[in-house]
Specification:
By secondary structure, the protein is α/β, with parallel strands linked by helices. The radius of gyration is 23 Å and the shape is globular. The protein has a 6-stranded mixed β-sheet with strand order 1-3-2-4-6-5, with helices on both faces. Helices cover 41% and strands 9% of the residues. Helix 1 packs across helix 8 and helix 4 packs antiparallel against helix 8. The chain has a domain of 193 residues: Uracil-DNA Glycosylase, subunit E (3-Layer(aba) Sandwich). The protein contains 12 helices and 6 strands. Strand 5 and strand 6 form a beta hairpin. The relative contact order is 0.13.
């Protein structure tokens, strides 16, 4: 039973990920009739069609995957199949049937997910070493979400993302963009601190992903700014280095994504601050936010 629930959870995570990535249709594969199973004479009257099978889709894909070509060869053609209604994933059905959430509804939804995160036991090592979970903070109506990697020691103690020196630098970046923490929403790929501030493991990211997707579904931001390689690569499902991801706008479903360097990296590499500022100016232009003229 536990294995069945785990499988159901993994399938739901995958469907939610595909939905947020903009993949709304799954192709149907019609196999060529096999002589040892369906005689050629009978194939004209009935066709056995297996369950739909979809190839893995990356979250940056925004167009439905086209169906495979019609069956060819010497076998008798299958009987005509009437077009089926477009598949709606669970998350899409819910969003399509409800209006845009109010501030109170978003706060209530985030609070519910936060309670689930606080009692999460999916990653045994993280549960054993964390002080508390770090869910996220900010404006539930935010147009812009900042996505980091995982909580550090300061975040683990205070229960809030991006505090300490890296958090102060993020505050400075926001101020330069005429923004405050109260204007945006800030969260991480992981909700628990990895021991020794090590990089998140793939299974940990997978375990936490549905929490992230539900946060994004509730907030519904127009823009995401990924801070660092871990955040950008996991959100966009890519291994491309951060140096190649930055400097341009990506798509995660209907959400525009900008990737830049993590504030902690900037504290160690001052020369990268100029590149990060270039990324932020690009993001502000896309958002229609006019920055103050640089003082001479």
């Amino acid at each position: 039973m536990d294995q069945r629930r785990q499988l159901q959870r993994l399938v739901l995570q995958r469907l939610e990920s595909l939905h947020l990535a903009g993949v709304l249709d799954l192709p149907r594969r019609v196999p060529r009739p096999r002589g040892d199973v369906v005689p050629a004479a009978a194939s004209a009257g009935a066709v056995h069609v297996p369950a739909p099978v979809a190839p893995p889709a990356k979250p940056v894909r925004t167009a439905p995957v086209p169906p495979e070509a019609a069956v060819s060869g010497g076998a008798a053609p299958p009987a005509a199949i009437a077009p089926e209604p477009r598949i709606l994933f669970p998350v899409e059905r819910e969003m399509a049937s409800t209006p845009t959430l109010s501030r109170a509804q978003r706060l209530e939804g985030l609070d519910q997910v936060s309670r689930e995160v606080a009692h999460c036991r999916r990653c045994a090592e993280l549960v054993a070493t964390r002080t508390q979970t770090v869910f996220g903070t900010g404006n539930p109506m935010a147009r812009l979400v900042f996505l980091g990697e995982a909580p550090g020691a300061d975040e683990d103690r205070q229960g809030e993302p991006f505090v300490g020196r890296a958090g102060q630098l993020l505050n400075d970046i926001l101020a330069a963009c005429t923004l405050k923490r109260e204007d945006v929403y800030i969260l991480n790929i992981l909700k628990c601190r990895p021991p020794g501030n090590r990089a998140p493991q793939p299974q940990e990211v997978s375990n936490c992903r549905d929490y992230l997707l539900r946060q994004l579904e509730i907030i519904r931001p127009e823009f995401i700014c990924c801070l660092g390689a871990v955040a950008a690569q996991n959100l966009l499902d890519t291994t491309t280095p951060i140096g190649q991801l930055r400097g341009r706008i990506h798509q995660f479903g209907q959400i525009k994504v900008v990737a830049t360097y993590h504030p902690a990296y900037l504290l160690r590499n001052q020369s990268a601050k100029r590149l990060t500022w270039d990324d932020m100016k690009m993001l502000m232009r896309a958002m229609g936010i006019k920055l103050p003229a640089k003082k001479k």
